[in-house]
Design brief:
Asp_race; Asp/Glu/hydantoin_racemase; alpha/beta; Rossmann fold; single chain; globular; isomerase
Length: 234
């Protein structure tokens, strides 16, 4: 049983579940991944906690992880990039095993880009300024290109817009302009490093760079771990 620690935010959780269904390659209902979902939007904002001293989300995440384990989950996923900065504490408190969105994404960067080619990152400020992506990408030979401060503020505004339900053409165009400047800075692809942003990229027929979607990467990883071949062997 896969446990989905969601609510961070709700639309991103639904997006993950849709991508998990499409990644599984099932031929019948029984081939799909058994899933339990904890979709609690009351988890304190992760970026606010790390950047502004806001409430720590760890206790709320521990509550969700324990609930998923009690419902029979054998491995968990957290549908938030920034939440991965808190997962060591959640794991210590619960013993839960998390499949890593970050590791899955870095693996897909390596499969897409030749060594040495920089990759851009559009993400919440806490993720962008941490080593969450920078360290594993550097180890894989891919320098990270970040938006300039004004563009990073624009990324945060776009994340808030999507959380409020705005995935309009204007939102798509604003994100495209940020990514175009990452391309001009040398990026060969861009990571949609906040789980709201793949929802915007999905509406862009001509993104300025190839997009690496961490939500889809995590869904593909979960499908490999829990998919039909694994279930048949269980």
């Amino acid at each position: 049983m896969l446990g989905v620690l969601g609510g961070m935010g709700p639309a991103a959780t639904v997006d993950f579940l849709d991508k998990l269904v499409r990644a599984t390659g099932a031929e019948r209902d029984q081939d799909h991944v058994p899933v339990v979902v904890w979709n609690d939007p009351r988890v304190p904002d992760r970026t606010d906690a790390l950047c502004n001293g806001g409430p720590d989300p760890t206790a709320a995440m521990v509550t969700g992880a324990n609930a998923l384990l009690a419902m029979g989950a054998s491995a968990l996923v957290a549908i938030c990039n920034t939440a991965h900065l808190f997962l060591p504490g959640v794991t210590r408190a619960t013993g839960a095993h998390f499949l890593s969105m970050i590791d899955a994404t870095v693996d897909e960067v390596g499969a897409m880009l030749p060594p040495g080619l920089p990759v851009g990152l559009v993400a919440g400020t806490a993720t962008a300024t941490s080593d969450l992506y920078a360290r594993p990408l550097a180890a894989a030979g891919h320098p990270l290109v970040l938006p300039h401060p004004a563009d990073q503020a624009e990324v945060m505004a776009l994340i808030r817009a999507v959380k409020a339900g705005d995935v309009s053409t204007n939102t798509v165009d604003r994100l495209r302009r940020v990514v175009a400047r990452l391309r001009a800075a040398g990026a060969g692809a861009v990571i949609a490093g906040c789980t709201e942003l793949p929802i915007v990229f999905a509406k862009d027929p001509r993104p300025a760079l190839p997009v690496i979607d961490p939500t889809a990467a995590l869904a593909r990883l979960a499908a490999r771990v829990f998919g039909p071949a694994r279930l048949a062997a269980a």
